[in-house]
Amino acid sequence: MTTPVLSCAGTAARSARFVDVAKSYGTTQVVSGINFHLDPGEFLTLLGPSGCGKSTTLNMIAGLDLPSEGRIFIGDHDVTTAKPSDRDIAMVFQSYALYPHLTVFENIGFPLRARRRRMAETDVRKKVMEAAASLGLEKLLDRYPREVSGGQRQRVALGRAMVRTPALYLLDEPLSNLDQQLRIQMRSELKDLHLRLGATMLYVTHDQSEAMTLSDRIVVMSNGRIEQVGTPQQLYYQPTNLFVAQFLGEPGMNIFSGRFADGRLQSNGVDLVAPPRTSSLASSVSAGIRPEDLVAGDLKTARLKGTVRTVEFMGSRVQLRADIGDTLVTAFLPAQLMFAPGQPIGLNPSSDDRVRWFDAQTGKALDFQ
Ligand code: ADP
Ligand code: MG
Question: Please, is 139 exposed, middle or buried when counting C-beta atoms within 10 Å of its C-beta (0-12, 13-18, 19+)?
């Protein structure tokens, strides 16, 4: 859980919980077995490829969609069937849907002037000015949405969510309409905002680097199911299965397969020695090594041997791709090492404990504890 640095609105932050939630449309099950919780003040991200059920999951806690099974709680309240307006949530979507005929000020203040919670104008002004100041929008308050940039519009949408102190913020790919540079800038601002508000945030993205940089914990999803829940570090260093190992990281973990006998995984160009108990845990195994855990080795004795395909200079290092057997492997190597496409190359894991072992049949990580 995050400790709020400067908590101004954090008092309203609540926990939230999904219990055995499933959703079907007709006979098509879209998500199932959804179980996770958010601590008060936590930034939790639903991460997974497009179509895996992230928005469906978010929409159910927002009250825009009804679960077919299971219960959803915000704080101690069972909100499974509650109206969206009774859930004390603020949402920010990818398409930020500002009112074009209202100024930036009026857009931000809109939720405060809504009939259900009409607030005195002096208080509205105070709240809007606070939100605008923390988002750097003070000079733009009299402009209309069409007169500000995409990044500024996205900030207005965030401001509109911030003027309230909801139990829970729900954000569905709020940065994906922005260009790369702005996305990275907004990412930092969002992180900063979260720390200042001390708010509970449930965030949706398909972008693993966004999830890794922003989140206290991540729920990795694929095909309507949860693959793993954990901190970015846990997911990165102890992926529970091949899906998580390959989905996280830029690029993901290199995976080697082949014949597995006498504790060795062997195939064309691959000869990796497994820890002693591996053989008793699975009959066929795959090994995973992250690009930064490979080092250049002697051509004759290296555990992995192949041919360099591409070398990209990245300043502090090179990103090298090599064909090893039928696996295209990525390695991050020191920039001073010289390699050329077509050249033979030997690679080794930087140490044995940097090699992860998986049951090749089930994809599950083999645990030696
Ligand atoms: P994500 O947000 O992870 O990209 P969604 O939650 O939007 O994924 O969608 C998950 C799956 O549910 C998709 O395969 C999508 O086609 C399907 N789906 C979403 N809404 C409906 C609907 N109203 N009727 C039928 N299928 C739907
Ligand atoms: Mg979506």
Answer: exposed
100-152 pLDDT per residue, tens? 999 999 999 999 988 666 788 999 999 999 989 888 899 999 999 999 988 88
Beta carbon of 16 within 6 Å of any ligand 1 atom: no
Q: How much of the chain is helix, strand and coil, in % rounded to 5? A: 30, 35, 35
- Please give the CATH number for the structural domain made up of 16-237: 3.40.50.300
Please give the sequence-ordered ranges of beta strands (E in DSSP) within 141-277, or none if there are none.
Answer: 168-172, 201-205, 217-222, 225-230, 254-256, 259-261, 264-267, 270-273
Q: Is the CB of 202 under 6 A from ligand 1?
A: no
Measured by CA distance, the residue closest to atom 26 of ligand 1 is 25
Phi, psi of 321 (to 5 degrees): -115, 135
Domain coordinates of the chain in residue numbers?
16-237, 253-359
The identity of residue 99, as a single letter, is: Y
Q: Does the Cβ of 47 fall within 6 Å of ligand 1? A: no
25 lines ligand 1 (CB under 6 A): yes
Residue 292 and residue 326: Cα distance in Å, rounded?
20
CATH superfamily, region 253-359: Nucleic acid-binding proteins (2.40.50.140)
Can you tell me which atom of ligand 1 is nearest the CA of 224? 10
0.85 surpassed by pTM = yes
